[in-house]
Structure formats: C-alpha cells, structure tokens
Design brief:
Structural class: mainly beta
Helix content: under 10%
Number of strands: 7
Protein name: (S)-ureidoglycine aminohydrolase cupin domain-containing protein
Largest sheet: 7 strands, antiparallel
InterPro entries: RmlC-like_jellyroll, RmlC_Cupin_sf, UGlyAH_Cupin_dom
Shape: globular
Length: 108
C-alpha cells in the first residue's frame, strides 16, 4: 500500500444542501477565502469542507488533463486530506471553509 495513491482520494460534492444543514454545520462562522479566475496548484494537508458562495471550479488530477470533479456556487464540497490537484477557476471563487484537525500533533 503506497502512501501516494491519490487516485483513491475522492472529492465529495453535495449540490444545493439545505439551509438547515448549512446552519447545523455553522458555515457562516467559518473563515472566508476567495480567488480570481486562473489555474492553481493545490495540496490538501488536511481534509477541507467548503461551501461556495460564488464561483465555478474544475478540478484536475495533478500533472494530468484528467478532470476529477467540478463544482460551483451553492455546492458543499469535501476535499480529502492528501489530495494534490489543479483548480481551473473560470468564475471567481468566494467560499467559507473549514479544515478538519484530525491529528494536530503528529507523533512518530
């Protein structure tokens, strides 16, 4: 079992989650992040859950033309820890986000 098998890492997209679900998660209290259109190389060192207020993103596997996900405004997205990818942002992104602190202290 290799540690670099990012092909197993799946992005989960919940289209149009209910307002009650968003309230339950406390999304309005999460930090905000945004970016303008362009291509971004990203690596997720922790699982991130985010809710897109606006934007449109296509996600490609790192160093590949294989699209692995697509999401946009109104989507609740879970990005797995260990994912390396390229975000191709066609519409500027504005999102609330939260990192899961699975193990804040890494003991060898």
């Amino acid at each position: 079992m290799a540690g670099e098998s990012s092909s197993d890492l799946r992005i989960i997209v919940h289209k149009n989650p209910s307002q009650s679900h968003l309230s339950e998660l406390g999304i309005k209290s999460w930090p905000k992040w945004g970016c303008s259109p362009g291509k971004y190389q990203l690596k997720f060192d922790a699982q991130e859950t985010c809710y897109l207020l606006r934007g449109k993103v296509k996600v490609y596997r790192k160093n590949s033309s294989e699209m692995i996900s697509e999401f946009g405004a109104g989507d609740l997205v879970i990005l797995p820890e260990g994912l390396s990818c390229t975000w191709d942002v066609s519409v500027a992104v504005d999102k609330h986000y939260k990192f899961e602190s699975t193990s804040s202290s890494s003991s060898s």
